Amino acid sequence: MKYDPVKNVFASVIKKIPFLRIAFYKLLDLVFLRSWYVRRELKKIRLLFGEEEISILDAGTGFGQYTYFMFRNMNPCKIIAIDIKEDWIQDCQNFFSAKEIKNVEFLVEDLTEINYEKKFDLIVCVDVMEHIQDDVKVFKNFYNALKTNGYLLINTPSIFGGSDVHDEEDESFIGEHARTGYSKEDFESKLHPIGYTTYQSKYTYGFWGDKAWRIGIKYPMLLLNLSKLFFLILPFYYLLTFPFFITMMYLDFYSENKIGSGINFIALKKD
User: Fold this and answer.
1) Residue 190 neighbours by CB under 8 Å, 6+ apart
2) Tens of pLDDT along 49-67?
């Protein structure tokens, strides 16, 4: 399945109707379990810095929803949000400028080519690394960009069913993925030689989260890939299924998953 065409439809809607963007952000935060995990860890990391202003890189900002969340919940902070897609960056820039949001800068950049030096206290990279073939180069770029005692938060599919791949012969559910996912050991084998240490590793989308993802995300996406006309029936679909998959998301969020189809990994740069 191709995920980007569906995302582009949503992007075109919020571009044409800007006042819907915040509502769209709230919808993403509600129905994507990964957002629950990412926002929880961001709040925890912010507390580690006390009252000091922190510098943040949103590496692969997409629609800008995490940039907006951090602006609202992690002040005082300065944020640079980057993405390789120029049209998405321009849309985000237009919206943030219209809302007169300060201390946020949007740039078109390729993560394999960024060259920041000890600039950021925190780098946030949500559902991006699975799209990049040369991940080690990006991890090195992140390391150079972090200050001492800076944090790298990565959220991505895991090897345990991430991208809906369960066997070697399975293909990724998301056609744009360069790999099916990561494990804790994968991250440590690539990050530790660069100089990172592991701060925290959590598997997400365990038994209940995986079921919630199928009902709330996978099946609607499959329908939308067949025909955009299914946008018309989505409200009725979610009216029927919402109580079930939101309950499953809560069960996952408050569980300690031994494995899961997602992973939330936080690395620390000590020197």
Assistant:
1) 135, 136, 139
2) 999 999 999 999 999 999 9
